[in-house]
Design brief:
Blueprint (H helix, E strand, L loop, with lengths): L39 H14 L10 E2 L23 E7 L11 E4 L4 E5 L2 E12 L5 E11 L11 H9 E8 L19 H19 L2
Parallel strand pairs: 1-2
Antiparallel strand pairs: 2-7, 3-5, 4-5, 5-6, 6-7
Helix pairs in contact: 1-3
Length: 217
């Protein structure tokens, strides 16, 4: 499969999921010179939990809503993220679909187990690694980490069915195209992220401790 194209697709908006949007750096609330490269724990507590609960604003709007599995990865607007993410990398909120197949018949195949994401000694979420195979079962250079919330953070007897459904289906996908000569270890570099580790850790603890109390409301 080809490397990221310049094609734009239809991204979700609050009012119309078929609205064509262009991602503008002016709309990304990041400090000048900073790159969006949050820790795994921050993706869960600062973004995914807030998105699910819809009770606090996100730190930035760098993660875009999209019907991710409607498209093959080379149709995604990866280039639109180049101003604040690493080369050929993008982050999306989406809902999981059965089999993780795209409309063209492509498939995101699992290439690893669920890995727990910790905040202190609490498992707050999980991530899993996927590789994209085209409709002809050809392995591509597209890979993806899927991040999901630990459902045990919400009470098993919660009466909030919508919240339970969101926890089951709403995820963050970090998708990236790897060049043939790129080493897997390049996932971790020394790039300045969008906020300090100390700030993230404080937010992690505060947000996790509030999750069940928010559900009571």
């Amino acid at each position: 499969m080809d490397s990221p194209s310049k094609k734009k697709i239809k991204l979700d908006s609050d009012n119309n999921k078929n609205t064509l949007q262009t991602i503008s750096l002016e709309n990304i609330k990041l400090p000048l010179g900073f790159r969006f490269k949050p820790k795994d724990s921050s993706l869960i507590t600062l973004y995914l939990i807030r998105k699910i609960l819809n009770n606090r604003p996100l730190p930035t709007n760098a993660i875009k809503d999209i019907v991710f599995y409607d498209f093959d990865p080379d149709q995604l607007p990866i280039g639109e993220f180049s101003g604040y993410c690493r080369h050929n990398e993008a982050y999306f909120f989406t809902e999981v679909v059965p089999g993780r197949t795209t409309k063209s018949g492509g498939l995101w195949k699992v290439h690893g187990p669920y890995v727990p994401i910790m905040s202190g000694d609490v498992v707050i979420g999980f991530k899993k690694y996927f590789v994209f195979y085209s409709a002809g079962e050809e392995k591509t250079n597209w890979n993806m980490y899927e991040y999901r919330l630990n459902p045990r953070l919400i009470r098993a007897d919660s009466p909030n069915e919508l919240l339970i459904r969101k926890i089951d289906y709403l995820v963050i996908c970090k998708v990236r195209y790897r060049e043939d000569d790129e080493n897997l270890s390049t996932d971790d570099d020394d790039t300045t992220s969008c906020s300090s580790d100390d700030e993230n850790e404080t937010e992690d603890n505060e947000t996790t401790s509030r999750l069940q109390s928010d559900d009571d409301q």
